[in-house]
Amino acid sequence: MRGRWNRNKKETTEAHKSISMSFLKQHGYLSGVQWGGLKWTDGCGEETGSIGFRIWLEGSVGDIRFQYTYTQGHGDHKERLDYPVKLVATPCRYGGKRWWFICPLTKNGIACRRRILKLYLGGEYFGCRHCYELTYQSCQKHDARVDRLCEDPALIRELLKSKDWSQRTLALKALFKRGSLFL
Ligand SMILES: [Zn+2]
After folding, report:
1. 116 CA to centre of ligand 1 in angstroms
2. 3-class state of residue 23 by DSSP
3. Can you give the residue ranges of every domain in the chain?
4. What is the pLDDT of residues 32-89, one digit of tens each?
5. Which candidate, 10, 140, 145, 156, has a CA 20 to 30 Å from the CA of 92?
6. CA 85 to ligand 1 center in whole angstroms
7. In sequence order, which residues have a C-beta less than 8 Å from that of residue 16 and are 6 or more positions away?
8. In this predicted model, what pLDDT tens digit does every residue of 153-168 receive, in sequence order?
9. Whole-angstrom distance, CA of residue 123 vs CA of residue 162
């Protein structure tokens, strides 16, 4: 079966790359065996990353196997990743079923195994927001960094040249917040 590539605008508006069950459902991935892909773009439409995946579902169990290259820091370290995340379905009250991801991360020696509807790429691997400690506060922290950047045009210039998409995004946000593209 041929893979498909989809873009999801909603998932690009957040600080972290993510994939949600509603995205998979919306694009018809929740049946049998399927291959697909997801690309993330920043506010300017520039691609910030992409992943390939293969979904296998049978009855009320299955998995999604992710394949992508993880780049650390400014691109000095690249790693090819290929690993499955378990999926499980629970019956809905009025028929049908709802699929969940099972968080694959281990924290302090304890496997998370939370049933979740959205996986975040908060680091090298996909995991739940609890494991990556993604809360409303982490968004506020991000905003505080943008505020500080607004005061530092030299740093904005430097970050704009960065190979790291998240650094470039920060710099662009600061630019927009300043309301001027001239530094
Ligand atoms: Zn978790």
Report:
1. 8
2. helix
3. 4-120, 136-178
4. 999 999 998 877 888 888 999 999 999 999 999 999 998 877 777 889 999 999 999 9
5. 10
6. 11
7. 120, 121, 122, 132, 134
8. 888 888 888 888 888 8
9. 19
